[in-house]
Predict the structure.
Amino acid sequence: MIYELVVPGFKEAKVSALINPVTRRWDTYLLRGLFHPTEVALILSIPLSPLPVEDKVIWPFNSSGVYSVKSGSRFLANEAILSPLQAYQHQHEDIWKRIWSLAVPNKVRNFLWCACRNAIPVKRNLWKRRIIMDDKCEHCLSAPETTYHALWECPKHSEVWEAFSGCEFRQVRSFSSIRELVDFGFSEDKNMELMVMVMWTFWYRRNQIRTRHLDFPASQVIPQASQALSDFKQHNISLPLQQGGSGQSWVRRHWSIPPTDCFKVYFDGATFPELGKAGLGVVVQNWEGNVMASLSEQAPLPFSPDIVEAMAAARAISFAQELGIRPFILEGDSEVVIETFMAAEESLSSFGHIISLAKSTLDTNECISFSRTVRCGNKVAHNLARHVRGLFV
Ligand SMILES: [Zn+2]
């Protein structure tokens, strides 16, 4: 409910008039002069970007900020009272979410994500950037080595895919990209975990042969992929997410040590509505499992828990940069925040600007991947975020 009449002189004023152009913070003095205290509190709960950004039109009734017919119908059906999390859980699962839900090692999920975005260094991609002059596949010498060719189409892979139960469609159906193939695989309920492991093994094999001239018979691809998948499942206690929708969702339950010479940066946020504050927690762990640094910081209370998580993630990145650690894996328990980091397109969500800015500060080799853990796997960062409560009393 709007309490105020328009103050003379402010009829044509824009929201930017309420933001201090130097500090990039809400002008609380002006707000208190113009609005009811309840409205002032609401306005102050909207996080601002520290840098000037273009205005955007967003749809506020789902966490992506993008209008969908489903969320529009829900809004019209007066269901807009759903929390952002509930609204998110009702959304259609897209391919990125499904990739993230696969119970395969993180490196394999990241690899598939890159492959679906055609962002792996196949010869065709290097040739397009004029890094190499020849883009021919070194296995078959008959076609350019595109991502699709290297992982699926190469005739030298036929014996492997023909032995893979459920992939008979390869002989009669072609796709325009790996993304289209993966989309098809999900929609047809194929054994995507093993299929993705096989693709990853093909890529690994290709690199082993290319860089180390190692003998890696194609007949070993499926056995090696199956073994790696079963090892992963044995060593990772995973559980389906609550209300995970039609597909199974799998997340890491315990901390895992990052690869050698790589750090993990965990983040978590906490809210204290009764105090009008939020807490941000960050923990940095090295590849030997030792905690290298931690941070516990308070922040103004924004209007949704997702925003606190985004603020914690952004703070985690700036903290890692202040410490000069690299490369690192950013890990947190907020599915929506991690997905926004992983998405190629800019998010229109209420916290999209926070993540866009944090991403824009990252070098390509600085943060090598984003990863999600469940709350109990992120306990220290969680406790640090909760710890700031004690600073208010
Ligand atoms: Zn080939």
